[in-house]
Amino acid sequence: MVAAPHDRGTSQSLERGLAVLSAFGSGPPLLGISDLARELGLSRSTTHRYVATLASLRYLTQDPLTRKYRLGPRVLDLGFSAINSMELREISAPHLRTLSDATGYTVNMGVLDGVDVLYVERSRSARQGQREIDLNLHVGSRLPAYCTSLGKVLLAYLPADEQRPALERIELVRRGPNTITSRRELARELERVRDAGLAVSNEELAFGLRSIAAPVRAQTGDVVAAINLAVHRSMVSLEDLVRNLGPALQRTAAEISDHLGVGQVRG
Predict the structure, then answer these.
(1) Does domain 86-259 match CATH 3.30.450.40?
(2) Do the beta carbons of residue 116 and residue 188 sit within 8 Å?
(3) Looking at the domain that runs over 12-78, which CATH code has it been given?
(4) What number is the average pLDDT over the span 126-150?
(5) Which of 1, 109, 204, 252 would bridge with 41, disulfide CB 3.0–4.6 Å?
(6) Strands 223-232 and 209-217: what pairing?
């Protein structure tokens, strides 16, 4: 539903145009005029006018077969520009590279966007077998938060009044052999993550993929991002992943947090 302008200093047209773009979020990649009108609480004619304008500006593109719309290249340009301008990314990149070089594994950084993880930085390893678990991920990729170690950290540290509605919005679909598909079990898992300061994903996203993640904090102490280290199950046992690589990951997260002005990362 589109919110009314808060005061005379806001633009209803701009709010509605942005609401159209936001409707694509983490939902279906293709939406029709009826879908959008229903989502936004607008008439079909009004919705069509906004969609036509956004399409003419290349913020939306129309699928020739279904006649539905998807986000266009101008939105991607804006997204990558925002990611590239993030102080967080600039600060973290050398730390992620150092950790990747030291361990031989790919290291990622992500932030929470709705109930998805948005990848904002990656340091890929050329180690044999590592490419098999990269899943074609790149800066700007999204994955469901509930079945990734990055996402578990970010969900675990949400304030309670934000975490509850977020968990209700998640569609718990089995992605790997060990995906958590119970909302109650997911809530318990997030409690364990908060207690440990470390999240583990053991073949929850995909077969053979294991990862551990740690929180990165801003100056306020709030968790603003997470970093993870991903391996194939044939490379490292789950126990060794946590025992041998967990401390290095947490140190790297603390170093990034220090550079953000937070001091020591709180558990």
Answers:
(1) yes
(2) no
(3) 1.10.10.10
(4) 78
(5) 1
(6) antiparallel
